[in-house]
Amino acid sequence: MEVAVWPHNNFQRFIRRIEVRVGVGISTHRTPLMMADPVLLPCPASLGLLIAGIELEAIENRVHEFSQLWLLRPCQGDEELDPVQWTQLAKFIPTP
Question: Per-domain residue ranges for the chain?
Answer without folding.
Answer: 2-92
